[in-house]
Design a protein that fits this description.
By secondary structure, this protein is of the alpha+beta class. The protein is built from 14 helices and 22 strands. 30% of the residues lie in helices and 22% in strands. The strands form 5 sheets. A 7-stranded mixed β-barrel has the order 10-13-14-15-16-18-17. Strands 2, 3, 6, 7 and 8 form a 5-stranded antiparallel sheet that branches. A 4-stranded mixed sheet has the order 4-5-1-9, with no helix packed on it. It comes from Piromyces finnis.
Length: 611
């Protein structure tokens, strides 16, 4: 007791008689020409940056209780002061200019089915979902300028993607960490180049959270900045493996691009972790399907013969992953064989069992296709009405030959045309699609016959299982109160970044002529998440929004609940792939704390008994 009192006494004297050191760490969002200072009382003290855009400094003062950060120009003149009044605390976190320090809990959507895949590994865990990363890429100026001013280049008289990479040093700052690595940046995707706010990919020389490739999706057409996130979460909640991520503020050289999602790309490490649960596992063959509706070509999965050139480089399939240790990089025959085999097996199955309604047909199909996973994928596509997905146009999907299960499965990606309704799409029947939860994707077959899915759904067992899956998801996962809680928590996470994000693209100083700018507003972010619509106003923006997100969820959910109202939801037997899958990674650090608390409680109990 005595010792404690003396210590207390000394520290009081110390505090009264001496100035104290106050430490500050803050991320600047204002580009390279500016620095950051701390303002307290009438004083402004500059901070310094060894690790741009992080500014740090220690200020010796008698007492700093309230403070703000200010943006300073090169001559030290204040040009912006944040609206937030901060209260000093000894908690050492990297703050962000103009953003409060907040901890948002993102609730999970209900999971009506058990885990089907690992969805991550110890060395490749899902990104935390309640962090906004601050990303600054300092890139070779010549190359960066060339890329950002020329998203497309001419190949003869054909416009093609500019896939050039610029070398960069990439800094990623989270509240409690600073990561830095060399690497490169490039624009990815094709459609996203229609906008001035490009989507960027980055290759990293040093791993970031186990990743060597990360993608930044621009969400350029979505005033809510939430649709892709929600669609991703829907797939995830039914264990259809997807690339997921969280949000990031992106700055490249002196250009402030705004708020993006930072997420995985579909690559070998992702497959190994999300499908097989271990970064060291064997990987199978993955192909992406692309179609060009309405004229085509379509990646219709028809068997075209055994010659790989009928599949390779014809604008439909793209070989994405294979095991480079066993397959030679030049061995095109071996690389395309698994895809061709799949189409051949399906072709045979259609020919042999196409009109056979017995269970034998299903038994034969599940020998090579993960039917259960595909039906869950289709159910989510139905609820979000995916206008560039598998069922509707056989696009934005990968087919993966899973060497562990010895079957094939489908994986969706790119969800920028979901939860928004029809936009004059020629193959959609405007009159019926909103209430139609079974034929919405296949109403108009004049230019494209849905050979693959139509042949599946000829079998009553498959349609019945789809109905049960859709019935359960539309009642449990897609329940409006659950979805609203999820998207509102995401809105809480990003709200302070919304106006800044919309402003960033208006002032972005790149010479790209072709790119649209969507001049959305903060109010539209709030209202379009519920029931508010955005009209088509071509002088202001390229995209409208004829449904609010919650409006869509309620309307579409009700339609699919009505469609499945007579379905026996207790008849919940997986049609294939009924495995027990464990979570192969330790989840959030919260569990760790819980364990420690338990140990402490037990030891206290022990002490109690000893006394
Ligand atoms: C930053 O400063 C340089 C040199 O003064 C200038 O050329 C450049 O335009 C400035 N950048 C911005 C975004 O203001
Ligand atoms: C800071 O917040 C104000 C008000 O919300 C906004 O106008 C300004 O653009 C913000 N600046 C930055 C760098 O976020
Ligand atoms: C930037 O890239 C160009 C070639 O694209 C190269 O000539 C130049 O040396 C690079 N600059 C730096 C600073 O590395
Ligand atoms: C980019 O970096 C790689 C290695 O890090 C190097 O081989 C290449 O020459 C660099 N390119 C440019 C244009 O600087
Ligand atoms: C069906 O799609 C074609 C385009 O492939 C379109 O020309 C036609 O008008 C559509 N039919 C209906 C009834 O919407």
């Amino acid at each position: 007791m005595k010792i404690k009192r003396i210590a207390l006494f000394f520290s009081t004297i110390f505090a009264l008689g001496n100035a104290k050191n106050y430490n500050f760490k803050v991320v600047s969002l204002s580009g390279e020409n500016y620095s950051i200072g701390v303002k307290y009382g009438n004083e402004i003290k500059p901070l310094f940056s060894d690790n741009f855009p992080l500014f740090t400094g220690t200020i010796e003062a008698d007492n700093i209780d309230k403070y703000k950060y200010v943006v300073l120009d090169k001559s030290g003149v204040t040009i912006e002061e944040e609206n937030i009044e901060r209260t000093y605390s000894d908690e050492s976190i990297n703050e962000v200019f103009n953003r409060t320090n907040k901890k948002v809990e993102i609730p999970k959507l209900p999971e009506p089915f058990k885990r089907m895949f690992s969805m991550g590994s110890e060395k490749f865990k899902p990104f935390p979902n309640n962090v906004i990363y601050n990303v600054y890429a300092k890139c070779n100026e010549t190359d960066y300028e060339y890329i950002s001013n020329n998203a497309f280049i001419m190949d003869g008289d054909k416009k093609i993607r500019n896939d050039k990479h610029a070398n960069c040093t990439i800094t990623i700052i989270s509240p409690d960490n600073v990561y830095r690595s060399t690497g490169s940046a490039y624009i990815f995707g094709f459609g996203s180049r229609a906008y001035k706010k490009f989507s960027w990919g980055m290759k990293l020389d040093k791993k970031f959270l186990g990743r060597k490739t990360i993608k930044f999706r621009a969400m350029a057409s979505d005033p809510t900045l939430i649709r892709e996130k929600l669609t991703t979460e829907l797939y995830k909640s039914v264990y259809v493996p997807v690339q997921e991520g969280t949000y990031a503020r992106l700055i490249i050289n002196d250009d402030v691009y705004g708020l993006y999602t930072i997420m995985d790309s579909i690559n070998k490490r992702w497959y190994k972790s999300y499908i097989h649960g271990d970064t060291k596992s064997k990987v199978g063959f993955g192909y992406k399907l692309f179609s060009s509706p309405p004229a085509g070509p379509y990646s219709d999965l028809k068997y075209l013969g055994d010659d790989y050139t009928l599949y390779d480089d014809v604008g439909t399939y793209k070989l994405d992953v294979y095991d480079e240790d066993t397959i030679n990089i030049d061995d095109r025959v071996a690389q395309w064989k698994p895809l061709i085999e799949f189409t051949k097996m399906y072709d045979n199955w259609v020919k042999t069992y196409g009109n056979d309604n017995s269970d034998k047909a299903i038994d034969e199909l599940k020998k090579f296709l993960n039917i259960e996973n595909l039906l869950r994928l289709l159910a989510i596509e139905t609820l979000v009405v995916s206008l560039d997905g598998f069922w509707y146009v056989m696009s934005n999907t990968a087919i993966y030959q899973n060497p562990q299960r010895n079957n094939y499965q489908f994986l969706p990606f790119d969800f920028d045309e979901t939860l928004i309704g029809n936009k004059n799409d020629p193959l959609i029947d405007e009159e019926t699609y909103k209430t139609d939860c079974i034929t919405w994707a296949t109403k108009n077959e004049t230019s494209f016959e849905h050979y693959f899915t139509n042949n599946l759904f000829k079998h009553p067992q498959i349609k019945n299982r789809y109905d049960v899956i859709l019935g359960k998801i539309s009642r449990e996962t897609f329940a409006p109160d659950k979805v609203r809680a999820f998207i509102n928590s995401i809105a809480d996470l990003i709200r302070e970044d919304v106006q800044w994000n919309f402003d960033a693209i208006k002032t972005l100083d790149i010479d790209y002529e072709g790119g649209y700018i969507n001049r959305f507003t903060y109010e539209e972010f709030e209202k379009n998440r519920e029931y508010g619509h955005l009209d088509y106003q071509p002088d202001i923006r390229a995209n409208d929004a004829s449904f609010g997100v919650m409006e869509w969820v309620e309307m579409r959910g009700n339609s699919c609940k009505a469609y499945t109202s007579n379905v026996n939801l207790n008849d919940d037997k997986y049609i294939s792939d009924d495995y027990e899958v464990e979570v192969p990674f330790s989840s959030a650090s919260k569990n760790f704390i819980a364990k420690i608390t338990l140990v402490t409680a037990l030891s206290q109990l022990l002490i109690f008994f000893l006394i």
